[in-house]
Design brief:
- The structure is a single chain.
- The longest helix is centred in the last third of the chain and has 16 residues, at 197-212.
- The protein has eight helices and seven strands; from the N terminus they run βαβαββαβααβαααβ.
- Strands 3-2-1-4-5-7-6 form a seven-stranded mixed β-sheet, sandwiched between helices.
- The chain is α/β, with parallel strands linked by helices.
């Protein structure tokens, strides 16, 4: 289930790409299937990184003439262990809403991107996210979990914050129109978010949709995503390329 649309990153064979906060590796795996890329996936969650590595075993190899490389490592988004001008592109998906100092992470991304490098950032779409916060309020609700979401981003504020670090936005869209209701159900039944029958039933529906991709649900997702997509996705280019 990819949030980023790789075509907006302008990737070419041999490019080096960082998935910052890669989790269990969904974008790393998608990049690997493109072939010919040098990919780094970093995260603070060691267990998630192990799952990301294990997930590679289930993927078919890219064509022999388009082999790339993947490296996983533990890393902090606000203090990246990479030299300046290392990467051609960075994906930072569903990370900034967790960070107390997200400006430090944006500054680090700018530092490690090459001139003309591109950045994809995704964060929770504001109004569906606000419903989650209201349905599962404090002291133990949705935004109050260890490592959970600590802010809701306004689109214009986030755009301006990123552009002040030396970027220009080039594209935007929303993603995952069918997924917001899952989180509303989880929050509505917060104490049973993993085993409530309505939550489990809707989760099975989403898995079926992802695996089978029937025409009806694809059309429904296309209609819902611009309005209630779970994620806001924005693409930027470093301004020194202009």
């Amino acid at each position: 289930m990819l949030t980023a649309r790789f075509r907006h990153l302008g990737l070419s064979a041999g490019d080096r790409v960082l998935d910052l906060g890669c989790g269990e590796g969904r974008h790393v795996h998608g990049l690997y299937m493109l072939g010919g890329l040098q990919i780094d996936g970093i995260d603070l969650d060691e267990a998630a990184l192990r799952k990301a590595e294990d997930g590679l075993k289930s993927l078919p190899p890219p064509p022999a003439d388009r082999k790339g490389a993947i490296r996983f490592s533990i890393g902090d988004a606000t203090a990246l262990d990479f030299a300046e001008n290392t990467f051609d592109a960075v994906i930072c998906s569903e990370v900034l809403e967790h960070l107390p100092d997200y400006h430090a992470a944006i500054a680090e991304i700018r530092r490690i991107l090459k001139p003309g490098g591109r950045l994809c950032v995704s964060v929770p779409h504001a109004w569906p996210e606000r419903i989650c916060w209201r349905l599962a309020p404090p002291p133990d609700g949705y935004p109050y979990q260890p490592g959970g979401h600590i802010r809701i981003f306004d689109e214009v504020d986030l755009k301006v914050s990123i552009e002040r670090h030396g970027f220009r936005m080039i594209q935007r869209h929303h993603a995952h129109g069918l997924h917001a209701p899952l989180w509303w159900l989880k929050c509505a039944f917060w104490t049973r978010r993993d085993d409530h029958p309505w939550v489990k039933a809707y989760h099975r529906f989403l898995v079926w949709d992802i695996m089978k991709r029937p025409v009806l649900t694809r059309a429904l997702d296309a209609l819902l995503t611009p309005v209630m997509g779970k994620s806001l996705v924005m693409y930027f280019e470093t301004t020194d390329a202009l």
